[in-house]
Design brief:
This protein has helices at 16-27, 39-47, 65-79, 102-130, 142-145, 150-170, 195-203, 213-223, and strands spanning 7-11, 31-36, 55-59, 84-87, 133-138, 175-182, 235-238. The chain is an alpha/beta fold and 245 residues long. A 7-stranded parallel beta sheet has the order 3-2-1-4-5-6-7, with helices on both faces. The chain is globular.
């Protein structure tokens, strides 16, 4: 199997894209750790797996450095190593720039960018000792187009810059770092988007549909396997052709 015995940690695994990524890796033979701030969602993800004995569910707040350290320590305690981390956890809110409250800015940046930094840093410590590892971050096409709230676009653009920087530093330790940049994707986060906005998004996608979580999971799988062994520091758009790097 493609990911036989790899140990894979996915954040934001309680629903949507993260949940699908967990399932995809598990079906391909990986030992998976599903982390999310929502304990109920984590339990649903784990219970849906064909072999839950090869999985661990973790309640974690990635905007807390201590919580991230505890989660990664739990993965290593359970499985003995960490081969792949997919940083999928993210939040957003619909704020105009001028009316953005401080607390909304702090929360979105704190989860999407600072939380991703914490996860990358703690995972890299483990992977460097192993001499190998794979870090996959999740950004957004909004970071490329600027179409979205300022805090969200800024946080996701920051993730792309983080990937470029740490990929250079971590390469000598055998760690590859890449970012997936989804376009509009059919996840629970999209449920709050007004229907007219959704239809406008679809109209701007040359392939004529929204993305699905499985589209992102397949790219994460590719980046985590030996077939992509010479790819690092890249920001890979998976958006149906709606924007280009």
């Amino acid at each position: 199997m493609k990911h036989q015995d790899q140990v894979v940690l996915v954040t934001g695994a309680g629903q949507g894209m993260g949940q699908e990524i967990v399932k995809h890796f598990a079906n391909a033979g990986a030992k998976v750790a599903a982390a999310d701030i929502n304990a109920e969602g984590v339990n649903e993800t784990i219970s849906a797996l064909a072999n839950p004995d090869n999985a661990i569910g973790l309640t974690a707040n990635i905007s807390s450095s201590d919580s991230v350290k505890e989660a990664i320590a739990s993965v290593v305690e359970k499985f003995g190593r960490l081969d792949v981390i997919v940083n999928c956890a993210g939040v957003g809110s619909f704020d105009t720039f001028i009316e953005t409250p401080d607390e909304h800015w702090d929360k979105v940046i704190g989860v999407n960018l600072t939380g991703t930094f914490y996860c990358c840093r703690e995972a890299a410590k483990v992977m460097a000792k192993q001499g190998s590892g794979n870090i996959i971050n999740i950004s957004s096409t909004a970071a490329m187009t600027g179409e979205g709230p300022s805090h969200y676009c800024s946080s996701k653009a920051g993730v792309m810059g983080l990937t470029r920087s740490i990929s250079r530093e971590l390469a000598a330790s055998g760690i590859r770092v890449n970012t997936i940049i989804p376009g509009p994707t059919n996840t629970p986060m999209m449920a709050d988007v007004p229907e007219e906005w959704t239809q406008q998004m679809i109209a701007n996608i040359p392939l004529g549909r929204m993305g699905e979580s499985i589209d992102i999971a397949k790219v994460a799988s590719f980046l985590a396997c030996d077939d992509s062994g010479f790819i690092t520091g890249q920001n890979i758009a998976v958006n149906g052709g709606m924007a280009f790097l």
